[in-house]
Amino acid sequence: QVQLVESGGGLAQPGGSLRLSCSASGFTFSSFAMTWARQVPGKGLEWVSGIYNDGSATVYADSVKGRFTMSRDNAQNTVYLQMNSLKPEDSALYYCAKAKAYAPKEYDSWGQGTQVTVSS
After folding, report:
1. Inter-residue contact 24 to 79 (CB < 8 Å)
2. Do 80 and 60 contact (CB within 8 A), yes or no?
3. Cβ partners under 8 Å of residue 103, min gap 6
4. What is the C-alpha separation between 30 and 72, in angstroms, rounded?
5. Please, are residues 66 and 12 in contact by the beta-carbon 8 Å criterion?
6. φ, ψ of residue 119 in degrees (nearest 5)
7. Average model confidence (pLDDT) for the chain?
8. CA 29 to each of CA 36, 66, 80, 108: distance values in angstroms, whole numbers, following the listed order
9. Alpha carbon distance 8, 40 (integer Å)
10. Chain mean position to CA 118
């Protein structure tokens, strides 16, 4: 059974940083790409970033490019999202998801999310 557990959310000031983690279990972690997405109440899900199964490449939404960095530790079955230069518009519920294959395209399992609030 696939399980994805996000952590690391919280309150940050504009310009501040947070590091999200997603701990995975129930599948061969190193074989699958992973992604982060976010959602604001009343709005659709926004894709944020993706990483290939081996960590060789990452992709980002234009809205976070240059500020967020996604990484993974296949020995620890964990993916991370380092968020710097946070803006109020980054406030959202952040989810991690498992892809269907090695590339960060279609996804089939989602975590419960961790809340990020950026406010002074």
Report:
1. yes
2. no
3. 33, 52, 53
4. 9
5. no
6. -160, 150
7. 97
8. 15, 26, 14, 13
9. 17
10. 16
Q: What 3-state DSSP class applies to 37?
A: strand
pLDDT reported for residue 105: 87
Query: Among candidates 94, 89, 41, which has minimal Cα distance to 70?
Result: 94
The structure tokens 């992604």 sit at 35
Distance CA 36, CA 46 (A): 9
Using the structure block, give the residue that is written with the tokens 């959602």: 39
* Cα 24 to Cα 78: distance, rounded to the nearest angstrom: 6
Q: Which residues contact 24 (CB under 8 A, 6 or more apart)?
A: 2, 3, 4, 5, 34, 77, 78, 79, 96, 98
- Between vectors from CA 98 to CA 63 and to CA 25, what angle results, nearest 5°? 130
Q: 90 with 59: CB under 8 angstroms?
A: no
Say how many CA atoms lie within 13 Å of 77 toward its Cβ.
Answer: 12
Read off the pLDDT band of 117 (50, 70, 90). Answer: very high
Do residues 22 and 6 lie in contact, with contact meaning Cβ atoms separated by under 8 Å? yes
Q: Note whether 48 and 35 are within 8 A (CB).
A: yes
